[in-house]
Amino acid sequence: MENYVSSHSSSDNGSSSICEVLQILGAKWSFLVLNELLSGPQRFNQLQRNVAVIKTQSLTDTLRHLEQKGLVLRQVFPTVPVTVEYSLTEKGSDFQTALKEMEKWVQKWGNSEQGNIKTSISS
């Protein structure tokens, strides 16, 4: 199956673009973290409260990954204790358009049983 996916994605430009997006975003919780940071910079504990479904280590890993990929900026302030704040870079903020489109899709198709019923009734 893996060979099929890689050979298929290299011949199909749309698939390779999607694979590239998934490699950049990578971490399981990336979309949720990016969406939360769209509201503005947040400290780790604040972010953790706002995305309570994510365990501490997973949030740490996700933030590191997004920082490494250039979507999240980690700023350390020399206070006592040290303050760390996370915000979106220009690259991360630019992902807002894709998130909004995903939200539209979920509103239309999120509950597939109801979506199919609505489609059948309106046809």
Structure in words:
The chain is mostly helical and 123 residues long. The protein has one domain: Orthogonal Bundle (Arc Repressor Mutant, subunit A). A three-stranded antiparallel beta sheet has the order 1-3-2. Strand 2 and strand 3 form a beta hairpin. Helix 1 crosses helix 2. The longest helix is centred in the C-terminal third of the chain and has 14 residues.
Notable characteristics:
Arc Repressor Mutant, subunit A, mainly alpha, 11% strand, 3-stranded antiparallel β-sheet, single chain, disordered C terminus, 123 residues, disordered N terminus, Winged helix-turn-helix transcriptional regulator
Concise summary:
Helices cover 65% and strands 11% of the residues. It has 123 residues and is mainly α.
Give the CATH superfamily.
Winged helix-like DNA-binding domain superfamily/Winged helix DNA-binding domain
Could you give the distance between the termini?
37 Å
Radius of gyration, Cα only, in angstroms?
18 Å
Query: In terms of structural class, how would the helical and strand content be classed?
Result: mainly alpha
Name the helicity range. 55-70%
Q: Judging from the principal axes of the Cα atoms, what is the shape?
A: globular
